[in-house]
Amino acid sequence: MSRTDNGPLRLGVAGLGTVGGGVIRLVTAQADLLAARCGRPVQVTAVSARDRNRDRGLDLSPYTWHDDPVALAGSDDIDVLVELIGGDDGPAKDAVDTAIAAGKDVVTANKALIAHHGTALATAAEARGVALNFEAAVAGGIPIVKAMREGLAGNSFSRVYGILNGTCNYILSAMRDSGRDFADVLDEAQALGYAEADPAFDVDGVDAAHKLAILTSLAFGCPVNLDAVHIEGIRHVSAIDIEFATELGYRIKLLGIARLTDHGVEQRVHPCMVAEASAIAQVGGVFNAVVAEGNFVDRVVFEGRGAGEGPTASAVIGDVVDVARGIRLPAFSVAAKDLNAIDPAPMDRHTGPYYVRLSVLDVPGVIADISAILRDQQLSIGSMLQRGRDPGEPVPVVLITHESEEAALARAMAQISALDSVVEEPKIIRIESL
Ligand code: HSE
Question: pLDDT by residue (tens digit) across 365-380?
Fold first, then answer.
C-alpha cells in the first residue's frame, strides 16, 4: 500500500547495531517532522537482529521481531527493508534479494554489498520497480550519492575524490599532530574506539575502495567494478614521511580517487601528498570529505562525519524519505541496463608528481648515480632535499619529481634500489595535484 495512499510507510530494520539503533531513535524523535516532510508517517514496524536479548537501550516491544532477516525482508508488515547487517554476502545479501523479489524498496548502508553486487542488485531492483538506495554506504552522513544522482546530474565528471575512511584520516592526523608512528597511533585509536579490533579493512584501504567503486559508477555511468580499484593502505606511512611532507608544504591523506584519463578510468586508493592549502588537506580527525569536479559546476566540496550513529542514520533516513515521497531513481544515476563498461586505466600509465624518499650512504657520487638513472628514464626532478650530514652512514634524501609516468618511475626505482649506496627500498608517495 506504500505507493498509493498516504498511510504510514512501514520500515523493517535488519541489524540493530549502532546504526540500527540510530535509525530507530531518529524515526521516533523526528516522527512529526518526517510525517510533515513526507506527507505521511514513517514508522518502524518490524526488526531483526542476531540477539534478541542484548541490551541496546531501546524498547523493541512495539516492533514485530524476526530472528531471520530473510523472513523480515519477505514479510507483509513492511514496505521497505532497511538493511544494516553488513557484509557482501550471507544474510545481508539474502535479505536484500528477498526484499527486491517481494517488491519491497531497499535502503542499505552496506558498502561491501553494493561494491560487490551493486550492478546486479540495481538491475533486479529496476526490473521490480523498487528503489535501491545506499546513501549511507558512502561517506556516512555526507549526502554525496544524492548530490551525484540529482543535484549534479547535469555534469560530466572528470574526477571525484575524497577522504573516504575516517579511521585512516584520524590515524594520519594524529601521526602528524604528535610525530608518532603508525603502530603507536593505531593502538591509541583502538583504545578510543575509533579503530576496530581488526583494523585491516580500514587501514589497508578496502573500506575506502568499496566506497570509491560506488562513487565511480555514479560519476562515470559504468558498472561497479571493485576489482579495478588499485588499493594501498596506510601501514607503510611513517613519521619521517609526514615530517618531510610538512616541510615541503604537503599533508598526507588516504584518498580514494576516480579519474577519467586518456587510458580509461583510474580508480585508486592510496596515501597521497596534497598541498596544505587544498580543501581536502584541512579535513582532519575522523571526518570524511568528497570533492566532485564537473564540467559545468566546476569543483564542489562536501565534508562531514563519515560514520557514527547519528550521521549514518541521517543518511539512511534521507533515502527512506525519498521512498516515502514516491521518488525512485536509478541506483547509479542511469538505468542499470545502460551502464557502460569503461576500460580501467592501468596504474603503470598513471602520471603525476611523486615523492620519493631514499636512504643513501653519505658518500661522494651517490647523488650523481641516482641522477643518471633518473635522466636515463626521462624523469625530471622538481626538488631534492638531503637531511643531515653523516659521512659513510645512511641519510634520507627526498626527491620530488615533476609529472612522470608510473612505469618509468618503477624502472628507475628498481635500478636505484640496486645501487650499493642505497640501503633501503625507496619509499614512494604519489602527489595528487588538486
Ligand atoms: N570504518 C569506516 C571509517 C566507517 O573508518 O570511515 C564505516 O564505513
Answer: 999 999 999 999 999 9
Question: C-alpha cell of 345?
Answer: 586505466
**Active-site annotation holds for 211:** yes
Chain Cα centroid distance, residue 318: 19
141 lines ligand 1 (CB under 6 A): no
Name the average pLDDT for the chain: 96
Domains of the chain from N-terminus onward: 9-137 (3.40.50.720), 144-305 (3.30.360.10), 350-432 (3.30.70.260)
- Which of 370-397 are b and which e, b meaning 16 or more Cβ less than 10 Å from the residue's Cβ? beebbeebebeeeeeeeeeeeeeebbbb
- 145 and 138 Cβ atoms separated by less than 8 Å: yes
- Helices then strands, each counted (H, E), the chain: 14, 18
Q: Which of 93, 104, 111, 211 is catalytic?
A: 211
> pLDDT tens across 229-286, in order?
999 999 999 999 999 999 999 999 999 999 999 999 999 999 999 999 999 999 999 9
If you count them, how many residues does the chain have? 434
Cβ-based neighbours of 335, under 8 Å, separated by 6 or more = 126
Whether ligand 1 lies within 6 angstroms of the CB of 166 is answered as yes
Residues 49-72 as b or e (16 or more Cβ within 10 Å = b): beeeeeeeeeeeeebeebeebbeb
CA 113 – ligand 1 centroid, Å: 15
Three-state secondary structure readout of 273-336: EEECCCCHHHCCCCEEEEEEEECCCEEEEEEEECCCHHHHHHHHHHHHHHHHCCCCCCCECECH
H-assigned helices in 221-290: 239-247
> Among 411, 148, 429, 161, which residue's Cα sits nearest to residue 271?
429
CA distances from 131 to 1, 8, 76, 80, 220 (A): 15, 17, 17, 9, 20
